[in-house]
Amino acid sequence: CVLAFVAGCAQTGKGGSGGGLTGPSAAEVVGDIAPPAGWQANESPKVFIGRKLCDHIDGDAERYLTSGFRSAAVCAWSPGADNTAFGSEDSLIVEVYEMEGPRAAFAIHSQNRSSSLKTAALGDDCCYGPGCLDFYRGKYVARVMIERSVGGGGKAAASSGAAADTEHSDEALVMETGKRLAEVLDRVYGVREPSVYGSEAGSGEGEDMVCVNEERRLLEEELPISRPTGARLPALAHVLPSTWKVAGSEKYYLGIANCTLGAEEMVEAKYDIGGGLVSVALLRFDSACEAESAMESLLVGYADAGWAAVQRLASGEGRAFWAFDRGRPSAEPELALTDGSTVQGTAVPLNSMCFLQGPHVGIAILVGTLPNDAIPRAALLADWLRAAVE
After folding, report:
1. CA-to-CA distance for 10 and 114, rounded, in angstroms?
2. Cis before residue 228, ω within 30 degrees of 0?
3. Residue 322 · residue 341 · CB < 8 Å
4. Which residues make beta-bridge pairs with 321?
5. Which of 4, 14, 61 is nearest to 256 (CA)?
6. Cα separation of 59 and 89, whole Å?
7. What is the mean pLDDT of residues 290-315?
8. Mean pLDDT in residue range 209-216
9. Which of 54, 57, 91, 95 is nearest to 73 (CA)?
10. Phi, psi of 86 (to 5 degrees)
């Protein structure tokens, strides 16, 4: 997390997305998908409801529970007798997590995203790599994984120089299985077509169609479509500037137990501004008063870390601070920022910028040491973010 050095200021509590969304349970979703060719189900899916999730992912369950978890279903398929590409101990794992709503689902999914993974037009946002695939659709998070036993046989494992072929076949298998899962969820939300996505497209009558249309309406309200990617992201993530942003770096957190400084929701992203990276976090609180208290806690964190925080006047009613490492004196009397302002008598390099704007607190922290000519771009990035929530 961007704000690890002040993580101790975070509060605990219940998170979630609310809304009381309808739709099938995780077990019903998994029950509608059959194993791909060459695989077989040897046992019924395991179902976890509420805190029983700890039995499945002990040590990480709290992140799900405090984000609005409802139920999960997990099935493990084994290779059939004619499946020579995999060993008898290998497994194809399918997991479906039912959350309270789309924001809660994206929160869990986003924390598995990585700029090193590929993306696909599957669900509302999808990332995948060799042997793993993760996507979310509405209030569901779907995950497909291949677990190969160590030295576990199979034609690919026995052949010399077969690593590339194994990687390719694993990737194809998780994508095929992911598409099967997406087809099941499309029956709830409608086929994923960006031009009509979230509309009332489709036909039918009765209670089932009412539920489908209500799901679509709530999905549209909670997660507007992101252009040009077509992915659905929470409104807070749409605020992030697109310039210099590292693709796939956005991570979203929901609920005060998961957000730094006790925010209600938080989004993070990385930016390559030339010469180095900047980690950006935007936090939303229930009120401007809570945001101001969080800013004060943040400034205390700066002071405890030995940083000097200098207030800079900002346009509008917001307040902006620029924090510097006191242990590295500047050879220059002042630092000129891109917006034309200057900070007098400080030290460089600049370590962090933060702002308070209404119920929002924004933080930009430089990763490593950036050259001085990159610092104005980092300052401009923070100003863009502040202006977006003004």
Report:
1. 25
2. yes
3. no
4. 311, 354
5. 14
6. 25
7. 80
8. 47
9. 95
10. -130, 150
- Name the one residue in this structure whose structure tokens are 């796939």: 248
Q: Which of 341, 365, 340 is nearest to 353 (CA)?
A: 365
Band (pLDDT 50/70/90 cuts) for residue 312 is low
Cα–Cα distance measured from residue 382 to residue 281, given in angstroms and rounded to the nearest whole number: 10
Specify the 3-state DSSP secondary structure of 9.
helix
In the chain, % of residues over pLDDT 90:
35
Q: How is residue 53 written in tokens? A: 């999730």
* DSSP conformation letters of 155-221: HHHHSTT-HHHHHHHHHHHHHHHHHHHHHHHHHHH----TTTTTS--S---SHHHHHHHHHHHHHHH
Give the C-alpha separation, 231 to 239, whole Å: 15
CA–CA dist 327, 351 (Å, integer): 12
Measured CA to CA in angstroms, residue 203 lies from 22, 73, 206 at distances of 19, 30, 10
Q: What is the dihedral angle through the alpha carbons of 249, 340, 376, 227, rounded to the nearest 10 degrees? A: 20
Residue-by-residue DSSP string for 96-146? EEEESSHHHHHHHHHTT--TTSEE-SSSSEEEEETTEEEEEETTEEEEEEE
Unique residue bearing structure tokens 């549209």: 220
Q: Cα separations (Å) of 183 from 54, 189, 191, 241?
A: 29, 10, 8, 33
